[in-house]
Amino acid sequence: MAESQDWLTQLKAHGYRLTGARRAVVQVVASSARALTPVEVYDAARTAYPALGLVTVYRTLEKLEELGLIQRVHQEQGCNAYLPHAQGHQHLLICQRCGRAVYFDGDDLTALFARVGDEHGFVVREHWLQLFGLCAKCQPEVNRDVS
Amino acid sequence: MAESQDWLTQLKAHGYRLTGARRAVVQVVASSARALTPVEVYDAARTAYPALGLVTVYRTLEKLEELGLIQRVHQEQGCNAYLPHAQGHQHLLICQRCGRAVYFDGDDLTALFARVGDEHGFVVREHWLQLFGLCAKCQPEVNRDVS
DNA sequence: AACGATAATGAAAATCGTTTTCAATTATAA
DNA sequence: TTATAATTGAAAACGATTTTCATTATCGTT
Predict the structure, then answer these.
(1) Which CATH code fits B90-144?
(2) Among the partner residues A93, A123, A127, nearest to B139 by beta-carbon distance
């Protein structure tokens, strides 16, 4: 995959070595449409590289985050899942059924948020925005699920 | 404090007993302007009730969250801090220096978010919004801090 | 192609925050 | 005051993450 290659190039460019373990982890995370936990990455990556250790997954995710290639995603179920990072200023739209994540642009909100801050004497420097709902595929499915 | 009393009344109303440990925890959390972690609550509440155990703090926070009196706050530094819950649909504005949290109204954003979802085939059912910045008190202070 | 320095690895142990277990204590309704 | 059942704190258990360490493998240099 193209993105996967790019990540390997970036790792190399920053002095990190390219190993089988890293290739496997990068491949899995770079091509995922949903945020994955370390264990999920571990399980998925071992099909390509069975000798992989969970510790290496943690270490690789750490480096990918450091390089801004992935981003931690906070959800009700937990805050330790990772997703390929968006380019530019983007926010997340996450499907509550299948977990699929989509980025959307949030630039136009900055002014609004600055105004909200003003009203409370704050200077706003960052914001966090995430939308949760059902993607097109899951909208019909959710009705027949046991709740 | 008024809010503290109200929480105790609510606990009682739901069949929970009022104990010294609970009063101490409630008092600390209800009167805090910043989100507190279990250990922070533990340390603060022990000045009023030295025999308090950390386990009881966890259990009391659990009940307060269950009753909707407190809310978990997600931040860069961690996702296990609690704040008195806002009435109605509110969002958080948090000071990056002192941690002070203020609620603001977010009702007018719902329509906008539904539209964003539409553009990606999603039905939006929830949203998460938090602003981070500097409160009035901390704006002058931040310049003389060591970064 | 072989070498050597050193980064990276996986297994095991250590650590941290949180939860469970359990016997003793205490709030509350009768 | 008493009886019952909820609550307590200490210790043990637990799961996720980090550290330690001896071994292995990458990659620039030869």
Answers:
(1) 3.30.1490.190
(2) A123
